[in-house]
Amino acid sequence: MRQRFQENRDEKDLIKAKQLLLAGEQELSDKRHPQPMKFPYSAGGISFGREGRVVDGVLDHWHPLEKAQYPAYFTRRDQRKQEFVERWHKKYGEHHVEEHH
Fold this sequence. Notes:
Elements: H1 2-7, H2 14-31, H3 64-67, H4 71-92
C-alpha cells in the first residue's frame, strides 16, 4: 500500500487521485482487525476519562501537619496563589459587596 502511495503521490488527474484515495481507504477498512487493540487510557479505551479531577481548592483544607510534609510545594503554591490574586485585582479591581437590609 505504501509503495502504491509513493508511485501515485504526484498524480495530477484529480478524478484518478480521488479513486486511488477511496480504493486505499477501502483496502485499509477491509484489512483492519475486527477487534482493534485500544490502550486503556486512550480515547476509546476502557479506562478513558475515569481519572477523577481533584479541585485545587481541596489543598486549602489540608491540616498544617499534612502541608508540612511538602514544604517546597506549598510555599510555591501559596506564592502563585498570591500572584494570581494580585493579577486578578489589577485586571478587575477590588470586589465590593453592598449590604442590603
